[in-house]
Amino acid sequence: MKSEVIKGPPGTPCAQNTSLGWILFGSIQKKVNRDEIISMHLNPDLDDMLKQMWEKDIDEKRLPTPEERKCEEIYKATTTRTEEGRYIVKLPTKTNTLLSTEGKTRDIALRRLNQLEKRFEKDRGLKEEYIKVMEEYKDMEHMEEVPQHEINNPSVYLPHHAIVKNKKETTKVRTVFNAS
Q1: pTM (global) more than 0.70
Q2: CA 19 to chain centre
Q3: Contact 25/17 with Cβ under 8 angstroms?
Q4: Partner of 6 at 20 to 30 A CA spacing, among 20, 58, 134, 162?
């Protein structure tokens, strides 16, 4: 969206300039005389429109913020690739030491797990499906079990819970992680 907006009288649409051209939005009066109907015809060059849509939109006036520059530096410095072709990048953080490791994220995650286990007692099918999802995460190396000797190391634990969509034909149980 660009800043150029053309507003007409009340009851008429507005026009807004975008990087892909002008768009019209808004309502029109319900009672319109045949003589007052406006028709607009546009024959866009579809190749140009697609090119504009997929080209990188560069705002040359705006400089990156210090946080954005730091994020870019972290990305450039830590991006590696495994033998399987996976990319690994360190998550950008505002500080070098994570403050959340000092918090009680493990306690919060354990409370959420206890709530989830109570829910599993009422719904054994949900428990089975949730275990399948967790095993899949382990197989894909999206998560790992914390060894007993590392339990008290400074870490960040993500609480999670299940979302169930019975009307879905494929995966009915989805895991939602709460990183707030």
Answers
A1: no
A2: 23
A3: no
A4: 58
pLDDT tens profile 25-50: 877 665 555 555 555 545 566 677 66
The alpha carbon torsion through 124, 126, 130, 131 (nearest 10 deg) reads 20
Token readout for 177 is: 């992680």
Cα of first residue to Cα of last residue in the chain, in angstroms, is 30
Amino acid at 178: N
Round to whole Å and give the CA distance between 54 and 59.
15
- Whole-angstrom CA distances from 130 to 21, 25, 114, 127, 137 are 47, 45, 14, 5, 11
C-alpha–C-alpha distance, residues 74 and 40, integer Å: 50
- Token code pair at residue 24: 């019209």
- pLDDT band for position 55 (cuts 50, 70, 90): low
